[in-house]
Amino acid sequence: MGWTYKVHGGVAAGSGAVVLALAVLAWVPGTAPVFEPQWVVPTAFLPAFLMAMSAFVRVLLVRSDKSELWQAFRCLPSRAQAGLAALVVACAIVLAAEVVAGGSRDVEVREGSYFAYDLQAHRMVEVAESEYQALLPGSRRMFLAVSGGLLIGASCLVLAAGEVRRADRGPLVPKSATAGVA
């Protein structure tokens, strides 16, 4: 597999782990200041989207189907498979826990007032600052978990595509081994 596939897959997996850790951190009490800025979600989602799209393009360029990609993924070293599987399971647990907990409520600040989405009224309602601070990490958790999932999926796709490309090139035979063959 080429080094660009390894770098792309490694950066995507590492970034996915960091973003997933941020999603888990949203459950820890007292972490609201980490999630206060509005740039947290776009900063996580934009690289995830770009890496997922470039992974998709790389899969298209190797021209393989799902079964070939799965076989190529199974040819990865066992540590890489185990690490990626652990990240996929962690992402699934975070997303499932968020869905079971009732999903997240969107919150925002407008002109110095705090607003949260009311699930019964289906609209934004004004809330106290303390309720806003309590809802803030949860409002970011789902977006962070989805971004982490995109990055982890991109890593799996890129590494599998790299294995397919390596297999398509055939075995590397030194020139000295074929020098006497006519």
Describe this structure in words.
It contains seven helices and three strands, in the order αααααβββαα. The protein is mainly alpha-helical and 182 residues long. Strands 1-2-3 form a three-stranded antiparallel β-sheet, covered by helices on one side. Strand 2 and strand 3 form a beta hairpin. Helix 1 (3-25) runs antiparallel to helix 6, helix 4 (66-74) packs across helix 6 and helix 5 (78-100) packs antiparallel against helix 6. The longest helix is centred in the last third of the chain and has 41 residues, at 129-169. The relative contact order is 0.23.
Quick take:
The protein is mostly helical and 182 residues long. It contains 7 helices and 3 strands; from the N terminus they run αααααβββαα.
Strand and helix layout:
Elements: H1 3-25, H2 32-35, H3 40-62, H4 66-74, H5 78-100, E1 107-110, E2 113-118, E3 123-127, H6 129-169, H7 175-178
Antiparallel strand pairs: 1-2, 2-3
Helix pairs in contact: 1-3, 1-5, 1-6, 3-6, 4-6, 5-6
